[in-house]
Design brief:
There is one protein chain. It is built from seven helices and 15 strands. The strands form three sheets. Strands 4-3-5-6-7-8-9-10 form an eight-stranded mixed beta sheet, with helices on both faces. The chain has a five-stranded mixed beta sheet with strand order 12-11-13-15-14, with helices on both faces. Strands 1-2 form a two-stranded antiparallel sheet. Helix 1 runs antiparallel to helix 2 and helix 4 packs across helix 7. About 45% of the residues are buried.
Length: about 260
């Protein structure tokens, strides 16, 4: 039994409440859609309502904990702990009816990530991790794919919303693509990192991420055995994959960025 077992149960409850709300609305007419950082960076009433539902579950049970959520919910901590929430990772997919989106909830303390939950309501999959206890999907242990060569590795990545950053990402893509097996782009960073944990892709890299994009899923990937490393420079980024691949991937991305 872990000190964080009750926190994991709470995160699961919050993720499933939000997931049910989102799934009920998925495929229907979008409401309250607005733009955020760019014309292609969107938020909807579904994001906001899911965030409100998560906030209610978490802070009712843990009023002393802090909260950092994508759509603006904030509270300061008196407990030294903070929940980091993406109520709907993959908003563009969600609004277009593409079934690749998730609810992401992490708990952090003074030692970093402690609990991670990524809930995929469409596939009925819930990825979980508790620091030092490994990672699971629907109760089954997760393990990385066996991979030790970049030229046969299947990579996942994503693209930011800023046009300048996207131009650099396109340049990186053209350099990397001939050097690896292939590259996938699902449109939700949390699911990409969980795919690393589940062995569905070999490794992942991306720039332009915010804390809520990776807080839960990076713990899940790490607890499944992945090496998770930050990309130096701006915008913020990270790579994740088997320890045998990570240095080579970091070097390849850095060389491609010039």
């Amino acid at each position: 039994m872990s000190d964080f077992d009750d926190d994991l149960k709470l995160a699961l409850e919050a993720a499933r409440v939000a997931g049910a709300l989102l799934l009920e609305r998925f495929g229907g007419p979008a409401q309250g859609v607005e733009r955020k950082s760019s014309r292609t960076d969107m938020v909807s009433d579904a994001d906001r309502e899911a965030e409100t539902a998560i906030e209610g579950v978490l802070l009712d049970a843990r009023p002393g904990d802090g909260l950092l959520a994508e759509e603006g919910a904030r509270s300061e901590a008196s407990s030294g702990r903070r929940w980091v929430v993406d109520p709907l990772d993959g908003t563009t997919n969600y609004l277009y009816g593409i079934p690749a989106w998730s609810v992401s909830i992490a708990l952090e303390d003074g030692d970093g990530g402690a609990v991670g939950v990524v809930h995929d309501p469409v596939r009925g999959e819930t990825f979980t991790a508790v620091r030092g206890q490994g990672a699971e999907c629907n109760g089954h242990p997760l393990r990385l794919a066996a991979a030790d060569r970049l030229d046969t590795a299947l990579l996942a990545t994503g693209f930011g919303y800023d046009p300048g950053n996207r131009a650099v990402q396109a340049q990186v893509l053209t350099t990397l693509l001939p050097r690896v097996r292939d590259i996938r782009r699902a449109g939700a960073a949390s699911l990409d990192l969980c795919s690393v944990a589940a062995g569905r892709v070999d490794a992942y890299y991306e720039r332009g991420l915010s804390p809520w994009d990776w807080a839960a899923a990076s713990l899940i990937a790490a607890e499944a055995g992945a090496s998770v490393r930050r990309l130096e420079g701006e915008p913020t980024g990270l790579v994740a994959g088997p320890p045998e691949l990570i240095d080579g991937l970091l070097e390849l991305v850095a060389a491609a960025e010039g």
